[in-house]
């Protein structure tokens, strides 16, 4: 979850550099989209494991 959040924040930083170079806006948006998808996947995984095992994962 932390890694996906950091990817999102990295995208925000790259997007802020769009003030200097116009193409960086688009690159920042793509990176933020990738980070947001990662966060959503982790939240969905957390919610699905929480419903079936009180927040604990099954042993492997």
Structure write-up:
The protein has about 60 residues and is mainly α. It is built from two helices and no strands. It has helices at about 1-15, 25-55. α1 (about 1-15) runs antiparallel to α2.
Structural topology:
Layout: H1 2-16, H2 23-53
Helix pairs in contact: 1-2
Protein name: DUF4175 domain-containing protein
Keywords: Membrane, Transmembrane, Transmembrane helix
Transmembrane segments: 25-47
Q: What would you say about this model in short?
A:
This protein is mainly α and 60 residues long.
Taking Cα atoms only, what radius of gyration do you get, to the nearest Å?
16 Å
Indicate the percent of residues in helices. Answer: over 70%
Largest sheet entry: none
By DSSP, the count of extended strands is: 0
Helix and strand composition category: mainly alpha
Which labels suit this protein?
mainly alpha; 60 residues; rod-shaped; 0% strand
